[in-house]
Structures are given as structure tokens and as C-alpha cells.
Amino acid sequence: MSSDSKQRPVYVISVAAELVDMHPQTLRLYERKGLIRPVRSSGKTRLYSERDIDHLREIRRLTQELGVNLAGVEEVMRLQHELDDLQGEFEAEIERIEDELRQQAQPRALPAQGERIDPKDRPVYVISIAAELVDMHPQTLRLYERKELIRPGRSSGKTRLYSERDIDHLREIRRLTQELGVNLAGVEEIMRLRHELDATRSNLEGNVLRIQQDITERMTNWRTLPAPHEEDQYAEQELQPEDD
């Protein structure tokens, strides 16, 4: 199913509730919490898309199968909505670029070749320093790595090295567990989505860059083609007999 069709609002609340085996009042609660975002018809009727149905099923899985509390579910769905929005922004950007190509417009300036790694992703902190920065025991950091909540780099000597982004993720884990009371299963879901969001953003930006570079090459080739009358002149010259 295409992205557009999954976002098309088609189900009234009674049908949506039946599809996910929930009471309509539960769907209204989740909407007030910002967990789902049904649209409204011109008559103010709630209409749910296939993506909303997917999100409702995910909420049920988190609460019933993993025992994640509502605060944890809110974090998961906030990240899921960020992913959805990012995908929408990417698709809009691709459409804009395609429009530019059709109109033979000038492409935007491109980043310099060989752009350096984001400083937030540079692995710099050994585990003892990272643990001190986030007020955790080093063994806790090792546990979180085994759970794939964080993904530190390794030096050539296999020493764990943590980036600023890893530090941010560790502080987020502490907030989720200590302030919001989210269980470890919920934290795993949230951090999985955070990693997915980071990777998706990076991949989409890379795809946009490659498309822009392709446009630049096409526009450059188009500008360097000889004018039609020049090609005719070249052809006439080749056809003229040579002097004896």
C-alpha cells in the first residue's frame, strides 16, 4: 500500500474502534493525549486512516503485551509521529525537486564534497567519563549497550567510545525511567524509534543530496549541448566535398 493511501482518512470512529478491538471512548482519549491524529470531515466527523489504525494497534501492543505505561506510550507515539512527519517532508522535498527539474530551474547550492561527520556523532568519551557525565555506573552503560539502547563506537583497540549523541540518549533513558516510570520494555521501544529516527533523517538527507547532485549533472549537461543550428552547421561542413 502506498504512503498516500495509508494516510487517506476513510474510517469513522465506530469502524476504527471495531478494527482495533477498542471502545470508541478509548480512541477519543488517545486523541486527547496526542497519541493518534484523526482528521475531521467538513461536518467535524472524526476520520481515521490506515496509519492511524496501525498506530492504535501499536498502542495496544505496548500496553497489553509489554506493559508500558501511558507516559511511555506517549513517548513512543511522539517519535512515531516524528518519523511520519519526516517521511512526509521528504516526499514533499522530492516532489519540489522534481518540479524544479521539469521547469529546468536552477538547483539549490549543494554542500561541499567530503562533508565532515556531525560533531555530535564523533566518539570521544571513554566509558568512565560517559558514566560520570550522566551520573550512572559504567556497568549500567554496558547493560544498556547489550539491550541496544545505546550504540557506542569502538577504538582500534576495542575501547568503547561514546559520542555527544550517546550522552543525550543516556540522559533520555534516565528521564524515562526515573521521571516517567517507564519500564525497560518501554525504554527499548522508545530508543529503537530514536535510533530509527536518527538513521531515517540521515538517509533521507543523503537521498535528497544525491537527487540534487543528479539534477546538477543533468542541468550542466543540458547547458553544454550545442545549439540545434550549430549541429546543422557541423553536419553541413562534414557533407561538403573536400577540395582536390
Q: Give the CATH class of the domain at 1-60.
A: Mainly Alpha
CATH topology title of the domain at 1-60 = Multidrug-efflux Transporter Regulator, Chain: A, Domain 2
Task: Figure out the total of helices.
Answer: 10
Share of helix, binned: 55-70%
Helix/strand order, N-terminal first: HHHEEHHHHEEHHH
- Main structural class: mainly alpha
- Radius of gyration, CA atoms, in whole angstroms: 27 Å
The quaternary organization reads as single chain
* Global morphology: flat
β-strand amount: under 5%
Short structural summary:
With 244 residues, the protein is mainly alpha-helical. Helix content is 64%, strand content 3%. Residues 104-112 have low confidence and may be disordered.
Describe the structure.
This protein has helices spanning 3-6, 13-20, 24-32, 50-65, 70-102, 127-134, 138-146, 164-179, 184-224, 228-239, and strands at residues 39-40, 46-47, 153-154, 160-161. The chain is mainly alpha-helical and 244 residues long. The protein has a domain at 1-60: Orthogonal Bundle (Multidrug-efflux Transporter Regulator, Chain: A, Domain 2). Helices cover 64% and strands 3% of the residues. The protein contains 10 helices and 4 strands. Strand 1 and strand 2 form a beta hairpin.
